[in-house]
Specification:
Layout (H helix, E strand, L loop, with lengths): L3 E5 L14 H15 L9 E3 L8 H13 L6 E7 L2 E4 L6 E4 L13 E2 H10 L4 E7 L26 E5 L24 H12 L7 E3 H13 L10 E5 L6 E4 L17 H10 L5 H4 L3 H13 L3 H17 L3 H16 L1
Parallel strand pairs: 1-2, 1-3, 3-7, 7-8
Antiparallel strand pairs: 4-5, 5-6, 8-10, 9-11
Length: 342
Amino acid sequence: MASRAVVIGPAAYAADSKMDSHPTIGASARMYGEVLAGDEMWGPDCCRVLTQDEVQTADGVMRALQEAADETGPDDIFLVVYVGHGQYWSDVPGAQVHFSLGSSHRDKPWTWLSSWYVYRVMRKARARLKVLIADCCYSNLLPQLGEEPVLPGVLGALDEGTCVFTAVKNASFASADGCSALPGNLSKCTPFSGHLLRILQDGTKDYNHQLTIGLLREAVKQEMESCTGAQHQVPRMSLNDARDGTPLFTNQMELKKRDPVPQLPVEPADWVKTLMMDRDSRLDELLKDERKTGDVVALLSSRPDEASRHLARHIDVRANKAFSSPHAFARYWNQVEKALRV
């Protein structure tokens, strides 16, 4: 068994479909294939970029996904990357996000691929970790890949959980125009995929040899927020039992160009930066200081993003167990309240 990645990128549509064809979609799909093929954690045998014929129909896409899913085992990662058009219809049974196919027509939902079919294949795969990267409009409405009995299409409980990384978070529109600030062929990709691929291709200055879930999320977010070419949408990542410190890709930055291994964080902001990359990294050291832990939880709770608040809840749960004596817990919680009032 081995980890498997499937890249889906329908870039061309029929003239009468009322769908815009975007070369950036095809360029993004090809680049994902090239970058993953050159990553030692993946390699050419583990990554499949679907052909133009395969992305024409739901049958072509789903057969490829099922074949890849069947090749994964309990020690593997199953990664699905979708780049294309996304649409959301609320007036169909079980309102859901749909992915476009080469044969899709704008106002004909039955010609699109339901995201629930993709989720079903991922749910049944034996891989320990399942990751969906969705670069399309309405990707912000994709449900969490976790246990949701009300939604039959989402993924079930797993050893290391699931991750959904989407091009948009607070808006439904995802731009398909290339970003001029990106170098070379990356500028021919969609903005979200182009910036994400730059991180995968060039790596980051972080000392870690691998790009973890948390490191990738923070690197792409910072890259897009600081981009000088255009104002980009904020990406979204939703985790269900997956750890921020789970490695996904290799950090391709040369070792001599990376930052040195940091000393133990001192200020709350330094702790936040460290724990956002890996929520359990050095957390035991933080939990030795009730007041410092309170400062960190308060700082995370006051931040507007979902990832920070999720991390705050995680640390709070650990703190409740660590500070078992009434006096220790009182010092922790009083510091939380004090810091939140500042």
